[in-house]
């Protein structure tokens, strides 16, 4: 009788038992866990109120329905119904970082300014006018404030919008979608928690789908060749503020108050197409100079910091003074109360 060799076929039951033993002998593998995302707090509805004296506010777009993510419409005014306490926050200055990298960063951004600055963005637009642009941005400004986004995000939104308008004709019924798409692209560059697509679509009353917004986002990025790091008014305001404090021309508290007031003036100018032809560094230094005059500082900022011709500086300053005179009520609503008191602005002005 021949004994079975070790290589002979085993029965099915034996193979199953051997397979179980092999699985038990394998080294344990740790399963990868997907990161758990924290749910952010829901947005609070905007307080809608009409502010007299604001020339750039109109209910051009419909307000979101009551069943959307945001209950009320943000199309009230450029101030968005915010109280005087909810204006530009006073940030802290990082002088050491400015000493190390300030001048090199400024020289780099100043050299890029002309490349990212569209001077006549509405020349190729048969349906989009300066008035419709003003109304869209007057709607986007309180939306940006409702999401508590930075001023840098707002500046990048306007830059992305204008640069795309300079390259591609846009239909009037797609203009609002272009606005929220530009806001989304800007927030992805700057904000830690950008708004969700669902929230942005809710602001448009469900007029557009997620696919339409994503498709337009791809078109904008393609038309701009993914070149998005534009120098902004926000950057130049911070640089000029650091420069004057480092030179000992003004106290830190006074410089921060002037920066906050200049940011409010610059926010008004973003919606006005008359200021689209001015470079961001020119607008920044002029807004800061006007803020110094309104706060009556003893040593105002040196206009030569911006390296612009005297004629351009005086022209921009004159238009900014007229803009502030027309929109003094709206400006008072977006500034801290103590700054309004120092520059004789009151929310009750008419």
Explain what you see.
The protein has 350 residues and is an all-alpha fold. Among the domains are: 84-93 and 231-342, Cyclin-like (Cyclin A, domain 1, Orthogonal Bundle), CATH 1.10.472; 118-223, Cyclin-like (Cyclin A, domain 1, Orthogonal Bundle). Helices cover 51% and strands 0% of the residues. The protein has 13 helices and no strands. It has helices at residues 12-25, 95-112, 130-146, 151-165, 175-190, 197-203, 210-223, 233-246, 252-270, 280-295, 310-326, 328-333, 337-342. Residues 138-222, 250-325 form the Cyclin-like domain. It is found in: Cytoplasm. Residues 231-349 form the Cyclin C-terminal domain. Residues 1-11 have a biased composition (Polar residues).
Please provide a brief summary of the model.
With about 350 residues, this protein is mainly α. It has helices at about 10-25, 95-110, 130-145, 150-165, 175-190, 195-205, 210-225, 235-245, 250-270, 280-295, 310-325, 330-335, 335-340. Among the domains are: about 85-95 and about 230-340, Cyclin-like (Cyclin A, domain 1), CATH 1.10.472.10; about 120-225, Cyclin A, domain 1 (Orthogonal Bundle), CATH 1.10.472.10.
Question: Which regions contain 5 or more consecutive residues with pLDDT less than 50?
Answer: 4-8, 42-87
Order of helices and strands: HHHHHHHHHHHHH
Structural class: mainly alpha
Number of strands: 0
The CATH topology annotation of the domain at 84-93 and 231-342 reads as: Cyclin A, domain 1
What multimeric state do the chains show?
A: single chain
Main location: cytoplasm
Protein name: Cyclin-O
GO cellular component, one term: cytoplasm
Domain Cyclin C-terminal: 231-349
